[in-house]
Description:
Elements: E1 3-4, H1 5-9, E2 26-32, E3 45-51, H2 56-70, E4 76-82, H3 88-103, H4 106-118, H5 127-136, H6 141-148, H7 151-166, E5 171-172, E6 174-177, E7 181-185, H8 188-211
Parallel strand pairs: 3-4
Antiparallel strand pairs: 1-5, 2-7, 3-6, 6-7
Helix pairs in contact: 2-4, 3-4, 3-6, 3-7
Amino acid sequence: MKFSRRGFAAAVLALGAxxxxxxxxxxxxxxxxxxxxxxxxxxxxxxxxxxSYGCPHCADFNPLLTAxxxxxxxxxxxxxxxxxxxxxxxxxxxxxxxxxxxxGDLHRLESDVFKAIHVERQNLFExxxxxxxVAKKGVDAKKFGETFSSFGVMSKVKRGDQMAQAYKITGxxxxxxxxxxxxxxxxxxxxLAIADSLIxxxxxxKSGKGAGKK
Length: 214
């Protein structure tokens, strides 16, 4: 279930409101990523979610993914990658993600960000508006502003878009398992079930390789 690039373009109105577009379903359970992409920790099974706060389907998926991630074994790491599709407004909310991550407020405020955009229809696509919003949520405005405009955060956003291109991401939300598989599914529950099966597959492959070493 994805919010396509074309649908994404319709998501940002003048005040940052979103229009829900029909989700796109993948008929195949998964697509092999070619070439396979490296993960940050070869000892872990890495699951990436490519997403945007501006995507209504990502908002719907977020609580399900959070609950699913909490049930994973210790050899699985779930990471989120906000992407922009090259648009400035979406870059701001990608920067918002990384800034909250650095300030330590991400876990506390992530669901609130989705709610503000998709339920309360607040404009968090412009720097001034989102800075005022996080300040009302108890975030140090000065620290937030400095971090938001930092080279480090801008580099993370650029890296996320580069990863999206390497993974051939055309819609969000999108799950990738261990740099090898892009997960399909007709709905969110099926997507997570397929991800579980792919994690088992990767775990088995890792175990087999380990057993073959002397």
